[in-house]
Amino acid sequence: MTTMLIRRPGVAELHPVRTRRRWTVTKVALGVSVPVLFVLAWQLSAVFEWVDPYLYPPPSRLGPALVTLWEEGKLVDATVTSVRRIILGYLLGAGAGVVVGFLMGMSRALRAALEPFSWAWYTVPKLALLPIFLTIFGFGDTSVVVLIAVTVYFFVWISVMSAVMAVPAGYREAALMLRANSWEMFRQVLLPAALPEIFVGLRIAAGVSVLILVGIEFVISDQGLGYLIEQGRTLLLLEQSYVGILLVALVGYLFALLVKFIGRLFIRWTDEDNAIIPS
Amino acid sequence: MDHAGHPASPGATDGGPPAAPRITVREVTRSFVTNGRSAVHALGPLDLSIGDAEFLCVVGPSGCGKSTLLKIIAGLLAPSSGEVAIDVSGDHRIPIAMVFQDYGIYPWKTVRANVELGLRLSGRPPTERREIADDWLSRLGLADFADVYPGALSGGMRQRVSIARALAIDPEVLLMDEPFAALDAQLREVLQEELLTIWQARRRTVVFVTHSLEEALLLGDRVVVMSARPGRIIADITVPFERPRSSEVRTDPLFAKLRGELWTGLHSEVVAQFDAGKDRR
Questions:
Q1: Omega of the bond prior to B230 within 30 degrees of 0, cis?
Q2: Of A242, A255, A210, whose CA–CA distance to A66 is shortest?
Q3: Strands (DSSP E) along chain A, which ranges?
Q4: Residue boundaries of the structural domains of chain B
Q5: Could you tell me whether strands B81-88 and B55-59 are parallel, antiparallel, or unpaired per DSSP bridges?
Q6: With contacts defined as CB-CB under 8 Å, which chain A residues touch B91?
């Protein structure tokens, strides 16, 4: 028995530009259709009363709730407060994490001194530290921002340190032979080499910052989206809770997307994905 | 046999084997689209037929599309136009093996596990694959390193692992993309000799891409020379040296003469490719 293996141009080769354009459209369509289907299923579950629509308000009831919250000004207030807290906390924590991550990634002594201590702190749920921060910084924004910063710091620190340590010896040796000093080694080799992995850590930390924010706002119940959700629950305004949850999801998504976009601005030398898989 | 539907195209090079070809390349071109718009014409149109059990060497200036051609034959890349047909007997799960220039062996597998991989993926039982892998490892002088991770090996040894992995599955077609390019000259000669011995003992169809004219003349039944980008075939010679050969053919006066002829054809192409690179500043 003999078989012929034939290599022919595929659609992508025959119509490269069109294929590319079509994939862009398909990509967006796929990305949008999953949430749309989700909302549809959610609505249907209420229409056919698979679940009790009073305990699980359907999307159609969220619109009016959204308008009410908007008119009361609570929506904008909560969102602005939460976004401000996330951004401040994230910038502080990520900045410190990048600096310490690089220092520890580059210095064996520093690593030996700080690694055990840092890992121990990493495992402590930061929400448990909230009472301490409330005592130090008082009841309000500062405590929330510091707590987010501390949480984000650990995630970024770990990813930066491991990314720096993983930079291949060949890159380092070539720079050493060009007589690079520590700063030049950092700037010309370690920073760009570690950047792709660092941005993975930054994106994870972006999500984590939203997680911790909602947790804090639940507990201290002063302002923000977390407070909106918590208040909706206690006052049995479930629509308000649901609107809050969706807004948190949206904020988290947009934030992670922003970090990814910034990463793409800096990282020009790799493809977004080189996923070759068996067809 | 179903060759009847695939006659060699008129553009196919002469000097090809009279028997039905194992691989037929018909009017193949390849362009690369960069940034959505501008297309770089990298290869062809190119016609070529490669006979069964023929050892074909492809030489040409860097960037002329040699590797692209090999990838198209391998099926890793589709042609932009044209067609490649490869006759495989059909009872092989992995009829074509490839040896990559940068080895493509896995640092997380031991040397033996790397060599066994193809056998494992084609469902051979553990004892059998171990036997076959160890046989190839000892033939390639790696028996003592079977349980070592490739990270601990030199470049030459890694490439031997990669060759062992390809040969272990006993492929019908073996594609080699400048396999010895990264090796030092002495090791290169040793491995050329090894490959020559192995191939002469069990002849398979080989397409071997190389920079080195000596390597091509030593190993090949036939040498095709490609032009600067977009790569086309500008010469196709049959190597006259008898089989079995050894590296002694290098001292044959005809060897130097053929090398000179090939270089004359190639020289202007290399310069053309080089100058094209300079202009693009």
A1: yes
A2: A242
A3: 3-7
A4: 1-88+205-281
A5: unpaired
A6: 1
- At A51 the three-state DSSP class reads coil
Tens digits of residue pLDDT in B38-82: 678 889 899 999 999 999 999 988 888 999 999 999 998 999 999
Measured between CB atoms, does A7 come within 8 Å of chain B? yes
**Cα–Cα distance measured from residue A150 to residue A90, given in angstroms and rounded to the nearest whole number:** 9
Helix (H) or strand (E) holding B82: strand B81-88
Contacts of B190 by beta carbon, 8 Å cutoff, 6+ apart:
none
**Edge-to-edge strands, sheet with B173-177:** B96-99, B173-177, B205-210, B55-59, B222-226, B233-238
CB-closest option in B75, B80, B89 to A13? B80
Single-letter amino acid code for the residue at B127: T
Contact list, A4 vs chain B (CB under 8 Å): 2, 6, 85-88
Helix axes A224-234, A191-220, angle to 10 degrees: 30
**Sequence-ordered alpha helix ranges (H) in A166-278:** 169-177, 182-184, 191-220, 224-234, 238-266
Q: Residue B33 and residue A17: Cβ atoms within 8 Å?
A: yes
Q: Which residue is it, tokens 């492929």?
A: B171
In the block, tokens 């459209």 appear at: A25
Contacts with B94 from chain A: Cβ below 8 Å:
none
Tell me the pLDDT tens digit for each residue of A74-122. Answer: 999 999 999 999 999 999 999 999 999 999 999 999 999 999 999 999 9
**Backbone torsion region of residue B15, taken as left when φ is above 0, otherwise alpha when ψ lies between -120 and 50, otherwise beta:** left
Of B3, B8, B6, B13, residue with least CA distance to B236: B13
Report the DSSP beta bridge partners of residue B275.
none
Q: Which two tokens stand for residue A201?
A: 């850590």
Q: What CATH class is the domain B1-88+205-281?
A: alpha beta
